[in-house]
Amino acid sequence: MKFVLADAIATQSLGIKFGELLPAGTVLLLSGDLGAGKTTFVQGIGKGLGITEAIVSPTFTLINEYTEGRIPLYHLDLYRLQANEVSALNLDSYWEGFEVTPGIVAIEWAERMPYKPDSYLVIRFMAVSDSEMREVEIIPFNWNFNEEMLRDISQYGSVREGKSKNKM
Question: In 3-state terms, what secondary structure has residue 120?
Fold first, then answer.
């Protein structure tokens, strides 16, 4: 599933829709260059979950936990880490619910992970030339979209007149 999003507002709007629809236990593996829209997307997820706290990139803290929404949001950023350092984080505790309440786990720079959960969504963000536009590709692994989610997110599949179809 691929989308072209006109700008940061459209990227955040797609995140809002995911936050409204994703169930607890969902793992999102986010990839893309710096400034491609990963954190903006996660900010949208937070809004969709009803989180009012400012969602910021956990580049230096590694993990930010937001528990006030419909379900918790765990936002991780692996940019500064090597694979052996990622292993030491015991990330599986987030998607297995060992030590935390199950929620949505959004992992930026997920390509640095030496292991992955049994099911997840890969979300790739790519800049489109020198514009604000972004191409987003969503690839499920052992994860199925229900009919409502497919219908609701399918509206993001195109750009019209330089602006996205959806605004916040």
Answer: strand
pTM of the predicted structure, to 2 decimals = 0.84
Amino acid at 12: Q
Q: Which amino acid is at 103?
A: G
Residuewise pLDDT in 10s, the chain (168 residues):
888 888 889 899 999 999 999 999 999 999 988 878 899 999 999 999 999 998 988 766 688 899 999 999 999 988 877 677 766 677 778 788 778 889 999 999 888 888 889 999 999 999 887 778 889 999 889 887 776 777 777 666 543 333 433 333
What is the rounded distance in angstroms from the CA atom of residue 116 to the CA atom of residue 95?
A: 10
Q: Secondary structure of 61-116 in the HEC alphabet?
A: CCEEEECCCCCCEEEEECCCCCHHHHHCCCCHHHHHCCCCCCCEEEEECHHHCCCC
Backbone φ/ψ region at 38: left (φ over 0), alpha (ψ -120 to 50), beta = alpha
